[in-house]
Predict the structure of NPH3 domain-containing protein.
Amino acid sequence: MKFMKLGTRSDSFYTEQATRSLVSDIPPDLVIKINDTTYLLHKSPLLSKCGLLLRLGSDISDSESVPLELHDMPGGAEAFELCAKFCYGVSINISAHNFVPSLCAAKLLQMNESIERGNFVGKLESFFRSCILEGWKDSVSTLQATEKLPEWSENLGIIRKCIDSIIEKVLTPLSQVKWSYTYTRPGYNRKEHHSVPKDWWTEDISILNIDLFRCIIMTIRSTHVLPPQLIGEALHVYACKWLPCIKKAKSSGSSASQTEESKEKHRIILETIVSMIPSDRGSVSVGFLLRLLSISSHLGVSTMTKTELIKRGSIQFHEATVSDLLYPSISSLDQNIYDIELVQIVLESFLKFWKRISPAAVDNRHYLLRSIRKVGKVVDSYLQMVARDENMAVSKFVALAETVPAVGRLEHDDLYQAINIYLKVHPDLSKVEKKRLCGILECQRLSSEARSHAVKNEFLPSRTVVQLLYYEQEKDSKVATTSTKLQKPHELLLLEAKKKPATRDSHGKQSQYLDKEAITRRTSIAESREKGQQKTKRLDDKLALDLEKKMVIRGGKEESMAGIKINLDHKKIIGRTRSNKSEYGSEKRR
């Protein structure tokens, strides 16, 4: 950062009882009061360079010691003292940090070239043009300093000139960026990256207040030079710096007045950021949108802002990962760890959005199906995480699971895993709650591995286990029936006839037909065997149906199954299958 050194004399200002003075053999003859600070100075050096003091001091005789009150001095006593030291020739350093108050104070004191050649205002303006505006960090720091004196800075043109300088550098081709900049992204090492990152400027301008930041971003957007994704990255960097409550689970323990003041500040920042997000899809990540949405209610943002966040988040919801959904519940009234209601709202909006898209085109239809299935996969993984929350209600869990349409799940393995975790973490569920929870499972959509684990799962209700066993038996019966249909008796005989060696008659010719009596006998045997299999199948189906009917739970008590057997008693089956417990998750990993 550049600076300008003026004056050669050593600093001999001192303080005595709230009075600032200068070590000198000449007694002071000028009293200036600025707020709570009184200065005892000399007319000769100050009136020769300050037009205002020359005009005011001429009305005061040498014998009078009436103080000149300059309470409206921009920059206060510190800025005035810099001007006074310049008049005395005391050494001072001017940089981007103190340039703005110095120039404003010098302008008020009328330290112009018309009063004396080489005056303070001329030197400051020359430093501003040749040094500050030519540098990157100097321009940003000077613009930040204008926040304390906005009206003076605006009237003197400091703000506009700094913004123009910043925008000019932001739009500079990367190959021509030679100045220093701040870039502290995780994993980035400047020594290893010789090229300049595209978003090199985003971190430096994030120190500005929201009004100045908005002015820069909107001006950059109006040029249509930078892509929307780069604008979105600048908004993301700014939000992470100024909205710390994004990363906090609950409100800080500060006083009520501080909390309200902080909330109001954050609300304005959030609403302004949302208004600046480019309309292009993908300009910001869905994780960033959901993060803003997660704190919007806590900050009391407008309905329009919240609706916009839900809309944009739902459009990109298929791009979300599980980590994008795991935002803590900020509300002090909500005892849940994660904000599951936020995910539910965005998911419902996502489904409404895709219903409005015409599925006529093949590309749209395939893209829609892929998107919904991807969302279903993410939601099931999210359910596995929130299932670990001891305060998670069954109704909320089931409501989110049921929001995913049937087409969104090719299989129910991930959903079963989430239910299994929930049952383990919540062992005190009532039978009604367990029935409600397991009712969202579809046995036919479980893989053979998942079904094998489920029938051994001691946390599942008996009704669900019997349904799984019945489905397995029904499936095996269908496989047996299909196999029989594929090979009819006469087909088997024809196949055997083809394999049988040809015989020759008395004239040496091959016999063209099988012995009719042998064919009739074998066909009769095969048909009898097939009828026996069909009779056995009907009997098994009837017994399985009786077993299912008698497993209905009435009044919290299961009816006795002692008198019904299907090869083996069902309680023995369940007991034997549950005796070898194994964790489904560990089996799946192996």
In short: The first helix runs from residue 43 to 47. Confidence is low (pLDDT under 50) at residues 248-255, 492-516, 542-590. The two ends are 59 Å apart (CA to CA).
